[in-house]
Amino acid sequence: MTDTAEQILVVDDARDIREPLGQYLKKQGFRVRLAANAAEARSIVETARIGLVVLDVMMPGEDGLSLCRWLVARGGPPVILLTAMADETDRIVGLELGADDYVTKPFNPRELLARVRAVLRRAPPPPPAFDATRRRFAGWTHDPTARKLHHDDGRVAGLTSGESRLLALFLDAPRTVLDRARLLDLVAGREAKAYDRAIDNQISRLRRKIEDDPKHPRLILTEWGGGYLLAADVEVAP
Response regulatory domain: which residues (predicted)? Predict the structure, then answer.
C-alpha cells in the first residue's frame, strides 16, 4: 500500500462489520479510515482526503441518510450505502439524495469491493493538491491560505473556497484557454453533474471582485465554444 492509494471511509456503528470490512479493504490495497457514527465521519471528511464513503443507513443518532445528504451537498466524496435487505425505501431515498450505489446486508465483501472500484472509476478526478504560493497578476495578489485578494491600491476581496480554487487554476495557466468541462470537474466536482452552470456563476462572482467593469471583463475572458482565459501575466509574490 502507498500514500497515493485511494482512502476509503467506512461508517457503521456495528464494530463486527466496521472493523473486518476495514481490514478486507486494506488487504485489497486501499487506505481505510473507520467511523462509528456520523459525528466521527464528519470530522474525518473535513480533515482527510477521502475518496469514497461506505455508509450504513441505520445508525443511532444521526442516520446514514442524513449524513449522505450532507456529503452530497458539500460536493463529495461518492457514497455507497449499506442497507437492510427489507429497507427498499431507504435505498430509493438514498439514491434520490445522491448516493452513488448501495449494497444490501448481509453482503459479500467481494461484491462490495467490485462496487467500490466501479464507483471510483466513475468519480471525477480529485481537486489538485493545495498550493499555498502567493501569486501576483494585474495588480492583484492572491493569498490562497487566507482566501483573499489584495490589490496594490489597498483593496481587499474575500474569496469562497471554490472561487479561490478557480482562480488558482487560471494562475497555473495564464493566457491559456481552460476548457469549461475540465474546470467543472476540477472546481465543482460532483456538483457539476447536478448544476451545469456552477462554473459560469463562479466566473461571474470572481469577475465582480477583480474586474474594473465586470460586464466588459479584461482579465477573465470568455472564449466562445472553448472556455475561459486569464489575460494577464503571473509571477510569484515576494
Answer: 7-120
What pTM, to 2 d.p., does this model score? 0.55
What CA–CA distance (Å, rounded) separates 9 from 22?
A: 9
Domains with residue ranges and CATH for the chain: 7-122 (3.40.50.2300), 135-236 (1.10.10.10)
Burial 109-148 (b: 16+ CB within 10 A, else e): eeebbebbeebbeebbeebeeeeeeebbbbebbbbbeebe
Q: Mark the ranges of the chain whose per-residue pLDDT is less than 70.
A: 1-4, 85-87, 123-130, 185-198
User: pLDDT tens, 196-233?
Assistant: 466 787 899 999 999 999 999 999 999 887 789 999 99
Q: What is the reported pLDDT for 73? A: 82
84 forms bridges with which residues in the sheet?
Answer: 105
Grid cell 469549461 in the structure block, residue: 180
